[in-house]
Design goal:
With 369 residues, the protein is of the alpha/beta class. Helix content is 25%, strand content 20%. The protein has eleven helices and 15 strands. It has helices at residues 48-55, 103-106, 168-171, 177-189, 204-215, 231-236, 252-260, 274-283, 308-311, 326-338, 357-365; strands at residues 8-14, 23-29, 36-44, 71-78, 90-93, 132-134, 137-139, 151-155, 159-161, 196-200, 220-224, 241-243, 266-269, 290-293, 315-318. Strand 10, helix 5 and strand 11 (220-224) form a beta-alpha-beta unit. Helix 4 (177-189) packs across helix 5 (204-215). It is globular and about 65 Å long. It starts with 7 loop residues before the first strand and ends with a helix. It binds nicotinamide-adenine-dinucleotide and zinc ion (ZN) (2 copies). InterPro entries: ADH-like_C, ADH-like_N, ADH_Zn_CS, ER, GroES-like_sf, NAD(P)-bd_dom_sf.
């Protein structure tokens, strides 16, 4: 019906320029074009990747932009040809799309999609236009999600329908942080029962790694963070030991090697720094150790490593969204959430209205969430 194809006026947190606070504005959200879906966002998390965006760390992202990529909502209207979702369906937007047709999507080992933003140098929808305007200006999308808007438009292949019983204010975390960390342990590292793991950085994503290691049956999970306020939650979720690099004179990789004899079986870097990435690599077993990079480094970062660290047999790999093929997996993850197979609710520290979005970022910067 025609009513579905009107411009919607709603609030959104707009980043006008890098390094500036967000401003909550009234924006216009155009109707979805063919193959697109307009979603009423009900809840969104704040992931450190949004903070990287505000800092201007992504050279491919144009401002002004509406950030947010960890949302959940309800389909408001669909464009021509959309068949997988309909108005009223609960959905989670996927920050890695899943077109199901490209060579990466067809590869069962891959969770990347060639339609994804990493292979494009702008942040508009696939037809190179935006559905957002504010004060007469075009506002860019972020990862085709832009969940800091009350309504957003997303390509059909970047949304997945989820169980109607799912609480959107909780499962939004499955859109990025929880799935990334949990999947990094289960899918990317393939943590084995009885193994020893080290998790560098126990913010929201690192805590999810801890949960994944525990679910995979790791017997020892060592959390490493410079903020000791993070340790209580890490222990509650499965960390067996928590250490701060500030408490040791020696480099942390030496501390971990001494604690474990020959290094950990699996290490995870969940901070986004070059120095902790190499420390995590050196912390795992010289021959059979697996190190997974989860943190997003600053643009232009370069790592130099002693090649012997790898020559001796270690495996160093990265992960995007925990390796899940999103459109199939998010639905299953939501079902597992509803069956209480994991407790991602433990990651929720504060719930704020959109008007207080800057306060949310202050909490993130202060390490309080
Ligand atoms: P966060 O800010 O909540 O947590 C980061 C943690 O690292 C904090 O607890 C902080 O105290 C700790 N830390 C900082 N410097 C440290 C140091 N030198 N040594 C030890 N600990 C240190 O962030 P988050 O939302 O959990 O995200 C973590 C990282 O994961 C970010 O870089 C984010 O961009 C990235 N990320 C990657 C993916 C992916 O697909 N690979 C997905 C989501 C997030
Ligand atoms: Zn994220
Ligand atoms: Zn694809």
């Amino acid at each position: 019906s025609l009513c579905c194809f009107q411009v919607i006026r709603c609030r959104a947190a707009v980043a006008w320029a890098a390094g500036k606070p967000l401003s909550v504005e009234e924006v216009e959200v155009a109707p979805p074009k063919a193959g697109e879906v307009r979603v009423k966002i009900v809840a969104t998390g704040i992931c450190h990747t949004d903070e990287h965006l505000l800092e201007g760390s992504f050279p491919n992202v144009d401002f002004p932009v509406i950030p947010g990529h960890e949302g959940a909502g309800i389909v408001e209207s669909v464009g021509q040809g959309v068949t997988s979702v309909k108005p009223g369906d609960k959905v989670i937007p996927l920050c890695i799309p899943h077109c199901g047709e490209c060579s990466f999507c067809l590869n069962p080992e891959s969770n990347y999609c060639l339609k994804s933003h990493l292979s494009e140098s702008q942040n508009l929808l696939p037809d190179k236009t935006s559905r957002f305007t504010c004060k007469g200006k075009t506002i860019h999308h972020f990862l085709w999600v832009s969940s800091f808007a009350e309504y957003t438009v997303i390509p059909e292949y970047a949304v997945a329908k989820i169980d109607a019983a799912a609480p959107l204010d909780k499962v939004c975390l499955l859109g990025c942080g929880f799935s990334t960390g949990y999947g990094a342990a289960i899918n990317t590292a393939k943590v084995k029962p009885g193994s020893t793991c080290a998790v560098f950085g126990v913010g929201g994503v690192g805590l999810s790694v801890v949960m994944g290691c525990k679910a995979a049956g790791a017997s020892r999970i060592i959390a490493i963070d410079i903020n000791k306020d993070k340790f209580a939650k890490a222990k509650e979720l499965g960390a067996t030991e928590c250490i701060s690099p500030h408490d040791f004179k020696k480099p942390i990789q030496e501390v971990l090697t001494e604690m474990t004899g020959h290094g950990v079986d699996y290490s995870f870097e969940v901070i986004g720094r070059a120095d902790t990435m190499t420390a995590a690599l050196a912390s795992c077993n010289m021959n059979t150790g697996v190190c997974v990079m989860v943190g997003v480094p600053a643009a232009g970062s370069v790592i130099s490593v002693d090649p012997m660290l790898l020559l001796s047999g270690r495996t160093w790999k990265g992960t995007l969204l925990g390796g899940w093929k999103m459109r199939d997996c998010i639905t299953k993850l939501v079902s597992s959430y509803l069956e209480k197979k994991f407790n991602s609710d433990a990651l929720i520290t504060h719930t704020l209205p959109i008007a207080k979005v800057n306060e949310g970022f202050e909490l993130l910067r202060a390490g309080k969430r």
